[in-house]
Specification:
The protein is an all-alpha fold and 244 residues long. The chain has one domain. Helices cover 56% and strands 0% of the residues.
């Protein structure tokens, strides 16, 4: 059954009204016009307590699944570098934190979601890390397809689950905004992460990229940098800026 425009537990105010019910007043929160995810779907899953809690639980679970994947290699990585090494757990962890900020808005529409500078940084980083990780995984698996295909989990399972990061990322513009500072920070961290992943290879040392069954080639390195730039560009296009 297709979600209706009105999520359970919310009233039937139109999108043109404000969160306090003032007719004709503009919404106080983001409208999600830059997202390909329909507003009615975002409202259903983010305003409805059971579905929001389910999404939050799924992301927290994914954090632990991701950490389990990295466990064998973690002893070889400096502890302070773990957040930049474990790409997938960090991406879904940021999304879980972002979703948790909506718990206090349950019972209200997305139009009423509070926005501030700190949240802009959180939502922007979550978006960039989700999109980057999803696209990078698809690129890495298919550049080295013989090393993974047709393994049911290591190819199909990993590919499908990580591609799901991308539509999930596009829920964020429905309740979050971004700023130039947030975008610049996301770009600096994404490119810094790329340097950490592949920079040591130029010195004949092991890089900090996610574990691969084959050595990364120049195509993957260049593709990773391009994906970082693309992810930040998509964030800039998807998110609205603060009002005023």
């Amino acid at each position: 059954m297709e979600p209706s425009d009105t999520a359970p537990g919310t009233d039937a105010r139109t999108d043109g009204g404000s969160s306090d019910g003032t007719p004709g007043a503009p919404p106080t929160g983001p409208t999600g016009t830059g997202s390909p995810v329909p507003r009615r779907w975002a409202r259903y899953y983010l305003e409805n307590a059971p579905s929001l809690v389910w999404l939050l639980f799924a992301n927290v679970t994914a954090v632990f699944v991701g950490i389990h994947f990295y466990l064998p290699s973690l002893p070889d990585v400096e502890t302070l570098l773990w957040p930049l090494y474990m790409d997938s757990p960090v991406a879904v962890g940021l999304m879980a934190l972002s979703l948790a900020t909506l718990l206090g808005n349950l019972g209200n529409r997305l139009d009423a979601v509070a926005t501030n500078r700190v949240l802009a940084y959180l939502h922007t980083l979550a978006f960039v890390w989700l999109v980057k990780t999803g696209l990078w995984t698809a690129l890495a698996l298919n550049l080295q397809v013989a090393a993974y295909f047709p393994d049911t989990w290591n190819y199909f399972g990993v590919l499908v689950t990580h591609l799901c990061f991308i539509p999930e990322a596009y829920l964020l513009p429905h309740y979050g905004r971004t700023t130039r500072g947030a975008l610049a920070t996301a770009l600096a961290l994404a490119l810094g992460n790329d340097l950490l992943d592949y920079g040591p290879l130029a010195l004949g040392q092991a890089g900090y990229h996610p574990p691969l069954r084959c050595d990364p080639g120049l195509v993957l390195v260049a593709g990773t940098v391009a994906i970082s730039l693309l992810s930040v560009g998509l964030a800039a296009r998807a998110f609205e800026r603060p009002v005023g």
